[in-house]
Amino acid sequence: MSGKKAWLAHYPESIETNVTIPNKPLGQILQETTEKYPDNNALSFYGRKFSYQQLNSLVHNFTSALQQNQVQKGDRVAIMLPNCPQYVISYYGILTAGAIVTQVNPMSVERELEYILKDSGAETIVVLDAFYPRLKSVQELTNLKNIIVVSIQPSGHEFAPDLSFESFLSESNGSVLPIEMDPLHDVAVLQYTGGTTGRSKGAMLTHRNVLANVIQCYEFFKEEMEIGNERFLTVIPLFHVFGMSSCMNFSIFTASESIMLPRFELEEVLNTIKNEQPTVFPGVPTMYVAITSHPRAEEYGINSIKTCNSGSAPMPLELLRSFEMKTSSKILEGYGLSEASPTTHCNPPFSVRKPGSVGIGVPSTEYKIVDLATGTEEVPVGELGEVIIKGPQIMKGYWNMPEETANTLRDGWLYTGDIAKVDEDGYLYIVDRKKDLIIASGFNVYPRDIEEVLYEHPAVQEAVCIGVLDPYRGEDVKAVIVQKAGKTVTEEEIIQYCKQNLAAYKVPHNVEFRDQLPKTNVGKILRRALRDEVKNKEKLIDS
Question: How many CA atoms lie within 13 A of 258 on its CB side?
């Protein structure tokens, strides 16, 4: 039975199950909200407020400056920033200029940064001053010509001959050339996601893909939302597709205020909640764990929060209950992926929530579970298989990767690589990750990325990485290593080596040395066997 047929019964008549997606560029939502709510607060950043009129004016100037610097339709413009107003200004300015936003994780180290910039062909980047030296070290290896430097606070650094963000805005001549857009086919965002081959893949999200997902989510949550009166706590990173869609784009679409923080620091978050009283808090389980565990969390007015949509990692039942008890809010656990802009499923605010499930499909989304062997036969209710998805939010394909695209998009369906099942009500349960993905603190970690680095260490003969349960991060990275004959290396040395060559969230916190790794008879390392060993140990500890 198709999941779609089962979940339709859960929708009330007031919510459309098949939404209409207007044929317009994504950036137009800011202009339309500005026309209706010019004086509403759009952004709040450490007490500084930006109205929609002010934000739209800054976006207009940024667009004009891009065009003055010969940025053309289809050019890739990278953003390497934490959450800050300049992120939103850059993002919507790039879209309005007809260029393609290229998302760069600010925690990327030189080798990762070089790959994304070379693969995308970006010639312009907006970067935080703290990351500037890292960027300059790889500039000559890329196509970068224009570097726009953002300073959130005075740093005393000089960036000549590169431009400060303020200087770049001053290059606007006040006019913006209209760009003819094809929302159905024109790419709005290159969202890089890790690959099991070790190469990151740029998911091409069109204007219609991203706009569709915003509209789908609004229709799903509209009975919980009051247009023009919500305040989003935006602490999940905007470079992540979840933050981009569920915080930035969704808040602008609903004329809400986005209360921005550049990172999750518990005391700062709690004080921000106390002072700003957010009503919507998209997050990941580690954030809710931290707040729930604080002994005086209730003293910070956390009961202002009405709705939390949780993604990126499974939500423990005990955490859900505890957080909801302290805040009187609803945590609605969902599911998505970069290739789907990202949201495809969520526990409904208007019907039964099933802990352990990621809920039902958002409007205009079809899904089913197919056999793992061929991917063509739909399996019965309750049986495991690969979840495949169809809808207007599904990506156009991978940037410059036709083979990967053909493997992932088949006959209109997105093959997620996730092993799942549906129950008789159409609720989806993610059981395992076919791609060996590890999710640590809401970040996607691909074992092959770490293994590639480990294999470059002179003392490492073989290496494999797996995810192990962690009460705070959800999962942590464990590396299992066989050393070369006559070579020795310590756990601490391996961890330090990884810190030098990988983004912090990818670094293993646990290293085990073995004489050999489990393998098939043709020599392939059995990663699953190692995971099963760990799970069995965890069961013994729990019992």
Answer: 32
Provide the terminal-to-terminal Cα distance of the chain, rounded to the nearest Å.
37
The SS3 of residue 39 is coil
User: pLDDT by residue (tens digit) across 78-95?
Assistant: 999 999 999 999 999 999
CA distance 223 to 15: 9
If you write DSSP's letter for every residue of 500-536 in order, what string do you get?
HHS-GGGS-SEEEE-S---B-TTS-B-HHHHHHHHHH
Is it true that the peptide bond before 161 is cis, omega within 30 degrees of 0?
A: yes
Amino acid at 155: S
Contacts with 46 (C-beta within 8 Å, 6 or more apart), sequence order: none
* Full set of structural domains in the chain with CATH: 27-182 (3.40.50.980), 438-542 (3.30.300.30)
The one-letter amino acid at 26: L
Give the burial class of 366: count Cβ atoms within 10 A of its Cβ; 0-12 exposed, 13-18 middle, 19 or more buried.
middle
User: pLDDT (tens digit, 9 = 90+) per residue, 377-396?
Assistant: 999 999 988 999 999 999 99
Report the alpha-carbon distance of residue 249 to residue 445 in Å, rounded: 25
| Gyration radius from the chain CA atoms | 23
Nearest CA among 76, 165, 85, 68 for reference residue 126:
165
| Residues 169-221 pLDDT 10s | 999 999 999 999 999 999 999 999 864 345 789 999 999 999 999 999 999 99
